[in-house]
Write a structure and sequence with these properties.
mainly beta, four-stranded antiparallel β-sheet, 480 residues
C-alpha cells in the first residue's frame, strides 16, 4: 500500500509528518484488500482486520484510545468486509450485513442513537443485541452489568482498570470482565468494581491502594482477582475504595479503605482482606456509599456505619464517624440504597424515606435544607419498588415499570428532558418496563442513571464525557 499528499498528522503513514509529492510505502501494512481515507486519518483492511494511522483525536481508529499514530496501528475491528472513512469517522460492514462505526459523533453520524464520540466500534441502528441483562450498576465514569449467562460487561472510563478487561483503555461499549462467569450481582465503583458469583466467591478488579480488591495485597489489577476468604456471598457493594459482601448467614464482611470506620469493625485501620462488621447478623441487603455503608435487616429495620457528616447514618446525629447504628424510626424497609452522602429506603407500602444531605433536595420532600439526620417521606411517591441514590439526586423505579427522579438536574440526571432542579419526583421520559435501576453516586457533580428495561436492554441518561443526555438512550455495542 502507498499514499501521498498532505501529511501534517501522519496520515500518509510513512512514519513522518512530511508532505509527500510522490507515493511512499505505508509502514506496517501488508496484504491490504481495501482502504479508506478520512480528513486526517487513513485505514486499511488486511485479512479482515483493520489498521489505521494519522489523527485519532475523535477515536476514529477504534482502538479504545485517542492516540495519534504515524504508522499503521491495529484496531478492534475484525472480520471486516468493507471499509469507509470520512471526516473523523470510520465505518465498516461485516459479513452478516451489519455495520459498525466509531469516531466523531457530534451530529449523530455513527447511527447509534447517541451524540457522543465512540472509543470503539459501535453497532449502527439498533439497541444492544446482547440483551438478557438482569442487573446494572451505574457509576459516574463507568458502568457494569450482569448479562445472560452471568457474564459481566463494563464500559466507560478505565483509568484504574475498573472495567476488568485487562487494560486501562476506556471503552465506549460494553466489554467483558475477564474470567468472570456465573455472576449474580455486580457493583461498579469510580476506581474498582466487584462481582458476586453463584459459587459464593467474589471477584474484584481496578485500583487497590487500600486493599479494596480484598486479595491480601495493595497491588492494583485490571483483571479480576478473587477476594480472600469469601465463600458464601449473595451480594457485593463498593464505595470509593471500600468493598462489602453480604454472606448467606446474614453477616457482612468489608475490606479496603477505613479512615471513616466504613469497614464497621470498630477501627479506622484499612484492611486488604475482609473483616466482619460488628453486630450485624441478620442482614438481607447491603449498600455502600461514599465513606459509609448500610445493611437492611430481616425485620425491616436498617443499620448504618461510617461517615456521618450529613446525618447519612440516620440515627438522629450528625458529624464524625459512627459504629453500626440503628436508623431511627425506619420499619418495613424492603430495599435500601446508600449514595454520596444521603440514603433512601423503600417501605412495604410502596412509599420511600430518605435521610442525610438535602442541599439539592435529595429528600424529595419539597425542601432543600442542609441535612435530615432521620428518615423523611418522599412527597407524592407511591408504588415504589426500588430506590437509587445518585450524587445529588435520587430516583425510584415504580411497580408499573416507569421511573421517577428528583433533586439536582444539572446534567440531565432526572431524565425529564430538562436541566431544571426538582424538589419532588418527576417522571423519567420514555422508561417503561423497567426491572432494575441504578444511579452514579461516588464522584463530584456528574450524575447518571441506567435502567434495565424490556427484554434485558439498557437505557441510560445524564452525564457522559462528551455530551449530556436529558432523556434515556440505548446502550449499544455488540459483544462477540
Amino acid at each position: 500500500m502507498k499514499c501521498w499528499g498532505y501529511n501534517a498528522k501522519g496520515q500518509v503513514g510513512d512514519g513522518s509528518t512530511v508532505t509527500r509529492l510522490a507515493p511512499v510505502a505505508v509502514n506496517g501494512v501488508t496484504g491490504a484488500t481495501a482502504l479508506a481515507t478520512g480528513f486526517s486519518h487513513s485505514c486499511a483492511v488486511s485479512g479482515g482486520n483493520v489498521s489505521c494511522w494519522g489523527f485519532n483525536g475523535n477515536y476514529q481508529f477504534g482502538d479504545s484510545t485517542d492516540n495519534d499514530s504515524l504508522v499503521a496501528t491495529p484496531t478492534l475491528f475484525t472480520g471486516v468486509a468493507t471499509i469507509s472513512a470520512a471526516g473523523n469517522d470510520t465505518c465498516v460492514t461485516m459479513p452478516d450485513g451489519s455495520a459498525r462505526c466509531e469516531g466523531d459523533n457530534a451530529l449523530g453520524q455513527l447511527g447509534n442513537k447517541s451524540a457522543w464520540d465512540y472509543f470503539s466500534p459501535s453497532l449502527v441502528g439498533t439497541a444492544d443485541p446482547v440483551n438478557g441483562y438482569s442487573q446494572v450498576d451505574a457509576e459516574s465514569f463507568s458502568n457494569c452489568g450482569v448479562a445472560a449467562g452471568g457474564v459481566v460487561n463494563c464500559w466507560g472510563d478505565n483509568n484504574y482498570g475498573q472495567l476488568g478487561n485487562g487494560t486501562t483503555n476506556g471503552s465506549g461499549f460494553p466489554t467483558p470482565a475477564l474470567g468472570v462467569a456465573g455472576a449474580t450481582n455486580v457493583a461498579a465503583g469510580p476506581m474498582h468494581s466487584c462481582a458476586a458469583l453463584a459459587s459464593g466467591s467474589v471477584k474484584c478488579w481496578g485500583k487497590n491502594t487500600y486493599g479494596g480488591l480484598g486479595n491480601g495485597t495493595t497491588t492494583s489489577s485490571p483483571t479480576p482477582v478473587t477476594v480472600s476468604g469469601i465463600t458464601s456471598a449473595t451480594q457485593v457493594a463498593v464505595g470509593y475504595e471500600t468493598s462489602c459482601a453480604l454472606l448467606s448467614t446474614g453477616s457482612v464482611r468489608c475490606w479496603g479503605y477505613n479512615a471513616r470506620s466504613e469497614l464497621g469493625d470498630g477501627t479506622t485501620t484499612s484492611s486488604s482482606t475482609p473483616v466482619t462488621v460488628a453486630g450485624v447478623a441478620t442482614a438481607t441487603q447491603i449498600a455502600v456509599g461514599s465513606e459509609y455503608a448500610c445493611a437492611r435487616l430481616t425485620d425491616g429495620t436498617a443499620t448504618c456505619w461510617g461517615d456521618n457528616d450529613y446525618g447519612q447514618i440516620g440515627d438522629g446525629t450528625t458529624g464524625g464517624s459512627r459504629p453500626p447504628s440503628t436508623v431511627t424510626g425506619l420499619t418495613g424497609a424492603v430495599q435500601i440504597d446508600a449514595g454520596n452522602d444521603h440514603t433512601c429506603a423503600v417501605l412495604t407500602d410502596g412509599t420511600a424515606r430518605c435521610w442525610g444531605n438535602n442541599q439539592s433536595g435529595q429528600m424529595g420532600n419539597n425542601t432543600a435544607t442542609s441535612h435530615e439526620p432521620v428518615p423523611v417521606p418522599v412527597s407524592g411517591l407511591a408504588n415504589a419498588a426500588q430506590v437509587t441514590t445518585g450524587i445529588y439526586f435520587s430516583c425510584a423505579r415504580l411497580t408499573d415499570g416507569t421511573a421517577k427522579c428528583w433533586a439536582e438536574n444539572y446534567f440531565g440526571e432526572l431524565g425529564d428532558g430538562t436541566k431544571t432542579q426538582r424538589l419532588i419526583p418527576v417522571v423519567v421520559v420514555g422508561v417503561t418496563g423497567a426491572t432494575q435501576i441504578s444511579s452514579s453516586s461516588l464522584a463530584l457533580q456528574q450524575g447518571r442513571t441506567c435502567a434495565v428495561v424490556g427484554a434485558g436492554e439498557l437505557r441510560c441518561w445524564g452525564y457522559y464525557a462528551a455530551a449530556i443526555q436529558f432523556k434515556p438512550i440505548a446502550v449499544v455495542g455488540k459483544i462477540t
